[in-house]
Design brief:
32% of the residues lie in helices and 21% in strands. By secondary structure, it is α/β, with parallel strands linked by helices. It has one domain: Alpha-Beta Complex (Spore Coat Polysaccharide Biosynthesis Protein SpsA, Chain A). Strands 1, 4, 5, 6, 7, 8, 9 and 10 form an eight-stranded mixed β-sheet that branches. Strand 7 and strand 8 (140-141) form a beta hairpin. Mean pLDDT is 90; it is low at 203-207.
Length: 207
């Protein structure tokens, strides 16, 4: 039996780039019949990933409630306010590293990344020798990114202030880029205008 591939969903961020005075965490904003986070989790669950772990931080109770509604486990990152992405990934890795073959690092604010895109990355990993698999669209690398366990130690050793992409830059020969037919891999929701442009319906609702 092969070792599982685990998604680590990074849902700890504070979403400051959504602008001053925005009191609601962006992951909790409406997205169709769910929320931004809910849609991301829905897509991850519909892929062929073996397990999913959601990392919480800011608004942890609300984020954990959405994860619980999807029957997914969470782990809290108490250091989310400093180096959120890396510290959250490292927290997730420490939780799952002993039991899995690879992790797929999923940004919680990418609700347009479909199960089909995720499965493309998983298939490339399972069929090839590369230890890092990332999607690419029209020459631009995006997310999510998969890391084989041989890179776990390197990710855990990255210092505060670094980012997972720093490890990618150190190991270009061990990275496979998978061409996808959608710019969803480039579309995360950082600003109010991103939300208005990308969300279902495209009608103003952000308050």
């Amino acid at each position: 039996m092969r070792a599982p591939i685990v998604a680590i969903v990074l849902a700890a961020g504070q979403g400051w780039r959504m602008g001053p005075g925005r009191q609601q965490l962006k992951l909790l904003l409406p997205w169709g019949d769910t929320t931004i986070l809910g849609q991301t989790l829905r897509h991850v669950q519909r892929s062929s990933l073996d397990h999913i772990l959601v990392v919480t931080g800011h608004e942890a109770a609300a984020v954990a409630a959405i994860a619980a509604a999807h029957q997914l486990p969470t782990i809290h990152n108490p250091h989310y306010a400093t180096g959120e992405m890396l510290s959250s990934l490292q927290a997730g890795l420490r939780q799952v590293a002993d039991s899995c073959a690879a992790v797929l690092v999923v940004l919680a604010d990418q609700p347009l990344v479909t199960p089909a895109i995720i499965d493309q990355l998983l298939a490339a990993y399972r069929q090839g020798p590369a230890g890092i698999v990332a999607p690419i669209y029209q020459g631009r690398r995006g997310n999510p990114v998969l890391f084989d366990r041989r890179h776990f130690a390197g990710l855990l050793a990255l210092p505060a202030g670094a980012a997972p992409r720093d490890l990618l830059q150190k190991h270009p020969a061990d990275m496979q880029l998978v061409a996808v037919d959608s710019d969803a891999i480039l579309a995360d929701i950082d600003r109010p205008e991103d939300y208005e442009r990308l969300r279902p319906g495209h009608t103003p609702a952000y308050e």
